[in-house]
Amino acid sequence: MQTRGVLGVLALLATASAQSYPLSLVYQFENSFSGVGYVNIENVAVRSSNGQLLLNFATGAIMTQLNPENPVPEILVNISNAYPGAPGSLTGIAETSPDVYTVAAGTFQFGPQVPGGIAGIPGSFSLWSVDLNGPKAKYRQIVAIPEAGLLNGVTALPGKGHYSDVVLVADSALGAIWRVNVHTGAYETIIQDPLLQPPPGAPFGVNGIHASGPYLYFTNSGLGFFGAIPISADGYPTGPVTPFVNAVNGTNFDDFALDANSNAWIATAPNAVYEVTRDSPVPILIAGGGDDMTLLGPTSAAFRGSTLFVVTGGAGGPMPMSGQVFRIETGGYGRKAKKWVA
Ligand SMILES: *[C@@H]1O[C@H](CO)[C@@H](O)[C@H](O)[C@H]1NC(C)=O
Ligand SMILES: *[C@@H]1O[C@H](CO)[C@@H](O)[C@H](O)[C@H]1NC(C)=O
């Protein structure tokens, strides 16, 4: 997640010429939907059992289901006010066993008094399990991580069959990766690195993270690059944090989806989707960018087959505009590119 004014940064955008894919709007939330003035969709996953989208909101600790073919949103989980001090937002999401999702939650402060306009409230972050087997969603707290600065992206490590015992969680404020056992709740910091930290005064360093093969791929929003960390099968680092591709000046990489070739399709503030592959030294513009205001603060993306779903955070403030869900038909399973090497 990251939040910044959609206006104001557009002038800084480099003109990116590239192949652009058509965007089609799946759904635009009503401002009234979350009960707090507008909807900021912070993250998205494709539900494995039925292909529908699971949307985590930053405006309310709410998970909503949306069928892209018949988009009528349904709130599955609302943890807000579940108890005194309950989290106000959901962030990352990863499926850890069939139709069971591990999500990160916490509370944020917004506004001009906060450096960067947004900050995670230390001590407010926790991991939750949301079980969608059965007629009604069940949720439970896996563990509170009071030492965390700002829990953001979540990725599951492959486990036995379709089960994962362990998730890795990005901490955007501390510049760290937490490793958490989703059954026991045992947690530890396994990586803390200057290349994962935000620049001084910025709220977000490492943001989206996705484990695939021998790497943990990640974006650093504030420092503006996509990179990877070599990891072992159980998620521990085996090599240095390595930057691969810099964001276009004036843009900020948020969360992303990996295709079958480990190319990353990155939701990018303020208004674009870029693809990064090892074969291109610069990000390839996929949608939006320039002065196109269609995408309002992209936050994350997920593939269903070759369809890329992209969600946005919208904009709060005096003229709120709620988050959106778009689809992009990518036409294949990713361009063949050389493998990343870190
Ligand atoms: C979520 O739950 C809280 C506490 O019960 C409630 O105040 C809020 O209206 C709920 N949000 C929605 C969108 O139902
Ligand atoms: C990027 O933008 C900043 C802020 O406008 C500017 O100072 C810097 O020179 C730019 N860098 C490049 C490489 O264009």
Can you walk through the features of this model?
This protein is an all-beta fold. The protein has no helices and 26 strands. It has strands at 23-28, 41-46, 53-57, 62-66, 74-78, 89-97, 100-106, 108-110, 118-120, 126-131, 138-144, 151-156, 166-171, 176-181, 187-192, 206-212, 215-220, 225-230, 242-246, 252-258, 264-269, 272-276, 284-288, 298-304, 307-312, 324-329. A 4-stranded antiparallel β-sheet has the order 1-26-25-24, with no helix packed on it. A 4-stranded antiparallel β-sheet has the order 2-3-4-5, with no helix packed on it. The protein is globular, with a radius of gyration of 18 Å. It starts with 22 loop residues before the first strand and ends in a 13-residue tail after the last strand. The structure holds 2-acetamido-2-deoxy-beta-D-glucopyranose (2 copies). The site of one 2-acetamido-2-deoxy-beta-D-glucopyranose has 2 residues, from loops. The site of one 2-acetamido-2-deoxy-beta-D-glucopyranose has 8 residues, from strand 5.
